[in-house]
Amino acid sequence: MSKLIRFAFTLLYTHFAWLYDLVATSVSFGEWKTWGAAALRFIPTSSSQTTPAAPQHPIRVLEIAHGPGHLHMALYKQGYSPIGIDLSPQMGRMAYWRCARGGVVPRLARADVMRLPFADASFDCLIATFPTEFISAQATLREARRVLAGDGVFVIVPSITLTGNGPLPAFIRWLYRITNQQSGRKPAEIVQESAAAARFAAKVAQLGFALNTHQVPTQHAEVTVWVLRKQLGLE
Questions:
Q1: What tens digit of pLDDT does each residue of 186-200 get?
Q2: 7 is in which domain, residue-wise?
Q3: Total structural domains in the chain?
């Protein structure tokens, strides 16, 4: 069953990417973009490399697995300097045309987060919303730390918890649970009581990050946000 579900998600992210927005909107009460945008409030307000000799420049953000491009457009509109990467060529095309229609020149690349094609200290912030298992791989975390400047942050939206009652929210909770999205659990349990999350916290600490967890409420859910801050002096 899990292999079949995984295969279905792969198809939705690739060959059936044109259905992605419709499906995501349907299972989120229309809040899909709002859940992802919860990450925006945790972006640094100033560049890690700002000095008297080097004036403030737009915050450099790398969006990992940018998907159809909604958050990427939001980053542009809020004045950040974003670059997006994704392995799906279908998502790359969707994000490109969404940005182009929005009047911005998209900076997107097909790249692997475990082998980032960027120099050391290239970004002030990394963002990943609803990533799959790749997010906890050591290669991912090492690359994230390498490309972050100063005490930059890696903002991850791993999951949400639906807060409404009734048959429809109950059905969606069940749907998320069987697809390992964890929305049927209490937000605090996702980080504090989950063995997997505890292992993740220990792993990021060993790799030079301090992890803080936040809950962002929306009309129908609470969004879990992990903020990994690069610790200096651990190279």
A1: 444 444 446 667 778
A2: 2-230
A3: 1
